Amino acid sequence: MAASRFHLLLVLSLTLSLCHFPDTTWAQLRQNYYASSCPKVESIVRGVVQNKIKQTFVTIPATLRLFFHDCFVQGCDASVIVASTATNKAEKDHSDNLSLAGDGFDTVIKAKAAVDATPGCKNKVSCADILAIATRDVIALSGGPSYPVELGRLDGLSSTAASVNGKLPQPTFSLNQLTAMFAANGLSQTDMIALSAAHTVGFSHCSRFAKRIYSFSRKGPIDPTLNRTYAKTLQTLCPKKVDSRIAINMDPNTPRTFDNMYYKNLVQGMGLFTSDQVLFTDPRSKPTVTKWAADSQAFRQAFITAMTKLGRVGVKSGRNGKIRQDCAVLA
């Protein structure tokens, strides 16, 4: 009996230890990982990103969202880029990923081709690392902070639409739901608030927030946490009969600049999604929003920290990954 009890306590102790120690699969990540194998990889990717941005601004929010959606599902392994086949519905075709703009995918695929065309670099750099580099570049090229990217990820060996279920935050999420989802990926509430600033660039379809401006509750059609003037503007831009083709800027003030305007908007009641505005209306997160609305430098540093941690989520190594020749094909 005593031996059985000891065994049970030992199992519980080990289980708790595993729960409290962070994932160390990212230990192989380091700056300048390709210094010997492909030393110019970052400048090659940046050149492709710059050209893509010249073609369309959508490259910036599209690439940023692609990285986030990739890391939160099966880890930062470029599995979101894999195309579906006749026998497998991949991540990118899950309903939560259908709004991902094609320019994000195109940026990674073109950067991969440019890297592989460089003497000595062919099949040396993973799609996952190229996406991480490109994400840093679109942030920096739109006015956000630049930061050293940790590299050394391998590409994932699987991609299924089913793996996306329940892994991505929704526009109606409460602070508790947001905090729990980010915590499941080793990210703190502060990290979550910082990463939410990705909504300072890019667009949203009206259907994602229509309820807030037309049918919020029996007490009134407009969400009371929404700035009234802003709500009327949104009604002008988005007809009550939702048109799926219409998309509007998520940041009504500086939509093409990565800055701390996101937090200034929240203070004014101009968070587009419920999951945005709740960061200011909930007293637990309000002080951080207020601080970063007033202190751009503090926000930028917190964002760098959060992006670095995000880039470590679910990193593949050894037999758990590979370097894909074609980012869209698992084989």
TrEMBL record:
It is an enzyme of class 1 (oxidoreductase). The lineage of its organism: Eukaryota, Viridiplantae, Streptophyta, Embryophyta, Tracheophyta. The keyword Secreted applies. Residues 1-27 form the signal peptide. Its EC number is 1.11.1.7. Removal of H(2)O(2), oxidation of toxic reductants, biosynthesis and degradation of lignin, suberization, auxin catabolism, response to environmental stresses such as wounding, pathogen attack and oxidative stress. These functions might be dependent on each isozyme/isoform in each plant tissue. Disulfide bonds join C38-C121, C71-C76, C127-C327, C206-C238. This is Peroxidase. It comes from Populus euphratica (Euphrates poplar). The gene is LOC105117568.
